[in-house]
């Protein structure tokens, strides 16, 4: 499955009053994509704690965005802002305690160790790299911080096998269907047949004219096996007139 442009969930100004509506929108989107309820609750904690710290402690922040990107095994949720880095707050709990003892974090930050416990694989980064020598105003304008976590869906997408010896067609169909289906593509129809027989999908979409095994032969081969004879099958063709060998009586 190929990734598309990330979905923009929310775009807000750095104001604490914006967080309530942001949480509502984020919750609805994650529910729509069948993210586990407990995981959504953890994401709400993450969003509140992280964005509160961005608003309170990231200098020069003018905008905050939240994106959701589809991956093969789930999603990547990303919080992005254009302010200064708060990476020191996410390093370790010990560092956080030192900051608290110094009086720098009296109203926020207590949930940061919890965030790391809930999402140990979180990734926080700044682009472009702040360690590079180029600190021009143009580079500063393009700079943004991102915090990303991976999420899995409890909903299993319907599976589709695409079969076509034209790689361009396969790529276009993957882009078209990839958000709503678990897509497996083959340019070799014989390899596709072996895979379908061992793990039947919910639907097969196949070109007709292919070398070694055409679409009709592939359909007949699947129809001869009990485990695949009832799989819905869609033919792809550029020909305006095709003799399918049967008649439809109205």
Task: Spell out the key features of this protein.
250 residues, alpha/beta, Heat Shock Protein 90, Rossmann fold, 2 domains, four-stranded parallel sheet, 9 strands, 22% strand, elongated, disordered C terminus
How would you describe this protein?
With 250 residues, this protein is of the alpha/beta class. The protein folds into two domains: 7-151, Heat Shock Protein 90; 159-236, 3-Layer(aba) Sandwich (Rossmann fold). The protein has eight helices and nine strands. The strands form two sheets. The chain has a five-stranded antiparallel β-sheet, with helices on one face. Strands 7-6-8-9 form a four-stranded parallel β-sheet, sandwiched between helices. Helix 1 runs antiparallel to helix 2 (37-57). The radius of gyration is 25 Å and the shape is elongated. Residues 92-110, 129-140 and 246-250 have low confidence and may be disordered.
Rg computed from alpha carbons, rounded to a whole number of angstroms: 25 Å
Biggest sheet record: 5 strands, antiparallel
> In terms of per-residue confidence, which ranges show pLDDT below 50 for 5 or more consecutive residues?
92-110, 129-140, 246-250
The computed structural class is alpha/beta
The top-level CATH class of the largest domain is Alpha Beta
Shape: elongated
The CATH topology of the largest domain turns out to be Heat Shock Protein 90
* CATH architecture descriptor name of the largest domain: 2-Layer Sandwich
Number of helices: 8
Task: Indicate the mean pLDDT.
Answer: 81
């Amino acid at each position: 499955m190929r990734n598309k442009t990330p979905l923009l969930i929310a775009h807000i100004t750095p104001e604490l009053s914006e967080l309530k509506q942001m949480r509502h929108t984020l919750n609805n989107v994650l529910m729509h994509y069948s993210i586990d309820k407990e995981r959504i609750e953890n994401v709400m904690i993450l969003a509140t704690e992280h964005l509160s710290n961005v608003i309170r402690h990231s200098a020069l922040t003018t905008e905050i965005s939240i994106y959701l990107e589809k991956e093969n095994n789930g999603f990547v949720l990303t919080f992005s802002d254009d302010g200064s880095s708060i990476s020191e707050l996410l390093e370790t709990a010990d560092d956080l305690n030192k900051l608290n003892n110094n009086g720098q974090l009296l109203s926020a930050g207590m949930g940061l160790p919890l965030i790391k416990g809930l999402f140990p694989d979180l990734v926080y980064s700044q682009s472009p790299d702040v360690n590079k020598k180029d600190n021009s105003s143009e580079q500063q304008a393009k700079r943004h911080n991102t915090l990303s976590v991976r999420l899995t869906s409890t909903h299993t997408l319907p599976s589709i096998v695409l079969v076509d010896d034209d790689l361009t067609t396969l790529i276009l169909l993957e882009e078209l269907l990839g958000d709503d289906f678990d897509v497996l593509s083959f340019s070799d129809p014989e390899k596709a047949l072996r895979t379908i027989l061992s793990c039947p999908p919910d639907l097969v979409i196949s070109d007709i004219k292919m070398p070694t095994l055409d679409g009709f032969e592939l359909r007949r081969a699947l129809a001869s096996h009990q485990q695949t004879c009832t799989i819905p099958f869609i033919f792809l063709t550029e020909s305006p007139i095709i003799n399918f060998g049967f008649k439809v009586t109205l």
